[in-house]
Amino acid sequence: MSTSEAALRFSVAPMMEWTDRHCRYFHRLMTKRAALFTEMVTAPAIIHGDRARLLGFDAAEHPVVCQLGGSDPAQLAEAAGIVADFGYDRIDLNCGCPSDRVRSGRFGASLMEEPDLVADCVAAMRGAVALPISVKCRIGIDDAEPREMLPVFLEKVVAAGVASLTIHARKAWLQGLSPRENRTVPPLDYDIVFDMKRRWPTMPIAINGGIADIDQSVALLEPREGVALDGVMLGRAAYETPAILGQVDRRIFGEAVEDVDPFAVVEAMEPYIARHLEEPGAKLNQVVRHMLGLFTGRPGARSWRRILTVKSISPDAGLEVLREALDAVRRPSSAERTSADRASA
């Protein structure tokens, strides 16, 4: 399976303030095959900002996808060239973000109203770089009927030469719902994503939205009425319960490997954290905040979260805090063992 295909078969969604370079390195320790997305980075920020801070990543993160935000074809083409020079595996255009910023600018989910402009953006980036250009979108926005809006949008984007699509199977309500509510309130419609695959059978299409675990991921990759999707993308579930990523290489990619042990992941993070703490202004919580959910459902998970949350914010916090938290999981209190037993009963 090529890097391009791997970026579609299973991926961890771009999530603002979550999927930074520390998060991606942590996730990579649990799956070698899944594609990892950056947070959305706007084209003007890349052109005019601190590129090393915005785009820098560890070589271990491959395959890694940079998600761009913007609506100016020339700016996006210039930004795409910079991204390519940094060594990313592909570029994704954000046409699904429902954040407050999209209401004052032409990017994110608001672009679904301008399919011709999106097509121009895709064409401009394709002309600037050799990397695959993908698009992530919603099924529609606001009062628009998804079965009318989405096919029109996809027709233009596909004609522009997009390499693949990821469809978040919810509407985005730019008026009346907060970004947080937009992740859960609009009802899911997985059927429409299968219908779009039926309409464009040769276009690689992945599904996103409300996917809770690897069991559901596997189920969504099964054919429905003769139509099979090409991939799944997990967001909050992958971040909040990251240990599920340890099953991906075996269950999604068919690798003959054991599921990854969360304890081994923590130990493997130590050299990375030690290097990070040597950097000016670095703090332990900048890394371990992404690790809080690693032991969810296990005895000792509550102590793990508490120790990391409370003690990692100290300016001089070091690996001893991580080791203390790990010991709490290795030797959970009797109360935590009882609580975990009840939760699993």
Core attributes:
single chain, 345 residues, alpha/beta, TIM Barrel, 2 domains, 8-stranded parallel β-barrel, 17 helices, 9 strands
Q: What do you see in this structure?
A:
This protein has 345 residues and is an alpha/beta fold. The chain folds into 2 domains: 249 residues, Alpha-Beta Barrel (TIM Barrel), CATH 3.20.20; 83 residues, no CATH class. Helix content is 44%, strand content 13%. The chain is built from 17 helices and 9 strands. The chain has an 8-stranded parallel β-barrel, surrounded by 6 helices. Strand 4, helix 5 and strand 5 form a beta-alpha-beta unit. The radius of gyration is 20 Å and the shape is globular.
Overall structural class, as computed from helix and strand content, comes to alpha/beta
Separation, N- and C-terminal Cα atoms? 40 Å
Helix content: 40-55%
What is the CATH superfamily classification of the largest domain? Aldolase class I
- Beta-strand share of residues: 5-15%
Looking at CATH, which topology of the largest domain would you report? TIM Barrel
